[in-house]
Design goal:
- The protein has about 140 residues and is an all-alpha fold.
- The chain has helices at about 10-20, 25-40, 45-50, 60-75, 115-120, 125-135.
- Helices cover about 50% and strands about 0% of the residues.
Length: about 140
């Protein structure tokens, strides 16, 4: 009788292994998408566990940095300072965890025609008038 292996979502360390085995960019991005799809369906406690242990190098520093940033981003989305087991500037003696950084601004930046951007900018009105004259 065959044993059926229970499904388990891939960790970021497993993703690093997949990326090492597949050096072409298109396949790597598909693997990242697959990881994220599995990750989002897991409960928060499991998601945090999927971010550790720290993955080994995939052989490309750009991808190594990407994986580190991805793990930090995913942990922050769930309200954690970072992936478990990493030093995030916490005090080892107190055992306290730092709070995740807050966004510097909630202002959204959208592309607008120059005339609209000048009108709505924080530049003083006298400068905006000057800019209109200069661009005419």
């Amino acid at each position: 009788m065959k044993r059926v292996q229970q499904y388990q979502a891939a960790s970021v360390a497993v993703l690093a292994g997949w990326l090492t085995d597949h050096p072409d960019e298109e396949t790597r991005w598909r693997l990242v998408a697959e990881f994220l799809e599995e990750y989002r369906h897991e409960p928060p406690v499991v998601r945090l566990a999927l971010l550790s242990p720290e993955p080994s190098s995939v052989g490309d520093p750009h991808w190594d940095v990407f994986l580190a940033a991805l793990a930090e981003h995913l942990a922050a989305k769930d309200g954690h300072a970072g992936p478990p087991g990493l030093n995030h500037g916490d005090s080892a003696s107190s055992g306290s965890r730092s709070t995740p950084p807050q966004p510097a601004s909630t202002r959204s930046f959208t592309h607008r025609p120059h005339s609209v951007a000048v009108e709505s900018s924080s530049t003083p009105k006298s400068w905006r008038s000057h800019e209109r004259c200069a661009s005419a």
